[in-house]
Amino acid sequence: MTALPWREIDTVLLDMDGTLLDLHFDNHFWLEHLPQRYAEHHKISRELADAELMPLFKEHAGQLNWYCTDFWSRELKLSIRDLKREVAELIALRPDADTFLDAVRAAGKRVVLITNAHRDSLSLKLERIELAGYFERMISSHDYGFAKENQQFWFALKQDLVFDPARSLFIDDSLSVLRSAARFGIAHLLAVREPDSHQGPRDTGEFAAVEDYRAILQGL
C-alpha cells in the first residue's frame, strides 16, 4: 500500500477486535467455546448445538444484537459475560498495535476507539490489555443504539465528536463496516489483512490493508 497522507489526517478512528486486538479470542469464543458450553448446559450434542446456534448467529450478524452480551445471555439462557472470562487468556494485542498508537498520539492526532463491542466485552478486554490511555474517547456502538454497519451510527458519532470525515482515518477489519464508513464520507480507510492470527491473510476487497503497523507510520 502507498504511504498515508498524514498531513491530511487530524482524527484517527480505530476499531478494537481484529484491528488492535487479535480476533482469535472472539472467533474461538463464538465458534468453539460458546457452542460447547451451550451443548453442556442444555444437555445436547455439540452437533445439535451448532445446528441451533449458527442460524441464530447468521440472523443477527451485522446488527446491534449480534454484539450485545445481554441479548445473547437472554436468548441462550447463559451468562455470556462469565463464559468469556473462562477463555480471557486468549485476549491479545496485535503485533505493534501499541507502537502505532504511541506514534499517532505523539504526532498530535486525535485518537478515538469506536467498537461494536458491548461495554461488558470492552471492560473485559481493558482488564487484560492496557488500551484506555491511548484514546481521547472509547465509544461503543451501543452508546448510540446503532451498529457501525448502520449509517445512523456515523451521524451520531459526528454529532458527538464533531470531527471532519474528510480529514479522518478509520481502520477496521470488517468490510461491511468500512463500506458503511465510506458511504458516510470517511476519506481514509484501511482494512486489516490478518485480523485472526490463526486464520491467515484474507482478501480485503476494494480496501488497502494494514499488514504491519510500523509500515503505515511512514511519513507521520
Automatic annotation (TrEMBL):
Pfam families from the UniProt entry? Hydrolase
The record's annotation in Gene3D superfamilies points to: HAD superfamily/HAD-like
Keyword Coiled coil among record annotations: no
Which Gene Ontology molecular-function terms are recorded?
hydrolase activity
User: Quick check: keyword Glycosyltransferase in the entry?
Assistant: no
Entries under SUPFAM superfamilies matching the protein:
HAD-like
Instruction: List keywords of the entry alphabetically.
Output: Hydrolase
Give the source's domain of life in one word.
Bacteria
Name the PANTHER family for this protein. ALPHA-D-GLUCOSE 1-PHOSPHATE PHOSPHATASE, FLAVIN MONONUCLEOTIDE HYDROLASE 1, CHLOROPLATIC
- Name used for this protein in its record: Putative hydrolase of the HAD superfamily
Native source organism of the sequence: Pseudomonas segetis
